[in-house]
Amino acid sequence: MPIVLVSSFAHYSTKEQPPHVEVIYVDSSAEAADYKIMQVARRGDILITQDYGLASLALGKGCTILHHKGFEYTTSNIEKLLHDRYLSAQIRKSGKRTKGPKPFTLQDSEKFRHLFVQILDQTT
User: Fold this and answer.
1) 2 and 59: one domain?
2) Are 41 and 96 in contact (CB under 8 A)?
3) Cys bridge to 58: 15, 28, 63, 79, which one at CB 3.0-4.6 A?
4) Cβ neighbours of residue 112 under 8 Å, at least 6 residues apart?
5) What range does the domain containing 68 cover?
6) pLDDT digit string (tens) for 71-99?
7) Coil, strand, or helix at residue 23?
8) What dihedral angle (degrees, nearest 10) is formed by the CA atoms of 77, 78, 82, 83?
9) What is the chain's Cα-based Rg?
10) Same-domain pairing of 13 and 63
């Protein structure tokens, strides 16, 4: 299965990738990686991201979008996720603090692996 990694030049690596992995580097501006991902994404692609905004855009292109903690973004849950993100931003703007994400756990990793295998099985 071909894999495309999109990263900014700020994270440039000389590490050699397997032949089925393509690395695309973009400049370090705020949304450059997201713009490139949306440019190359096609219906049916699997996208892994923790960015709710990017997930929302990719849903519109017919992509399957997974969060690294093991859940799938859907048209049913994206609106609530975006709304919660907005509310947290408003709280921070008012000078209050919000909790950050919980640490990534072995259970998160296993949940993601299970979901990813399930999605791969559906696409083959």
Assistant:
1) no
2) no
3) 63
4) 66, 67, 68, 69, 70
5) 42-124
6) 999 999 999 999 999 999 999 999 998 88
7) strand
8) -40
9) 16
10) no
